[in-house]
Amino acid sequence: HPRSGEAGPACGDTLRAVVEVLETRPSTSKPDRGIVTVKYTTRNQRGEPVMTMLAKQLIRRRPTGARSAP
């Protein structure tokens, strides 16, 4: 539930999620993994944020020398 005075999503809103990578770093304990900090923002049809979340995710790293997809 939104705090008093804050707008929240309403039935019938069109929502979209925007994901922003804030930081990437190698894991110190698992060399084949990395830690990614991401910010998720859900916006309504007027572009107003209705939810924001920060998360840290443990992600498998590409092998050394591997190329990105085009």
Any chance you could write out the topology, listing elements then pairs?
Blueprint: E1 16-26, E2 33-43, E3 49-60
Antiparallel strand pairs: 1-2, 2-3
Distinctive features:
70 residues, mainly beta, 3-stranded antiparallel beta sheet, 0% helix, elongated
Largest sheet descriptor: 3 strands, antiparallel
- What class, by secondary structure content? mainly beta
Number of strands: 3
User: Could you tell me the mean pLDDT?
Assistant: 85
Write the H/E string, N to C. Answer: EEE
Strand content: over 45%
Q: How would the global form be characterised? A: elongated
Distance between the termini: 42 Å
Overall helicity: under 10%
Low-confidence residue ranges? none
Spatial strand sequence of the major β-sheet = 1-2-3
Determine Rg (CA atoms, Å): 17 Å
- Total number of helical segments? 0
Any overview of this molecule?
By secondary structure, this protein is an all-beta fold. A hairpin with a 6-residue loop joins strand 1 and strand 2 (33-43). The protein contains no helices and 3 strands. 0% of the residues lie in helices and 49% in strands. It has strands at 16-26, 33-43, 49-60. A 3-stranded antiparallel beta sheet has the order 1-2-3, with no helix packed on it.
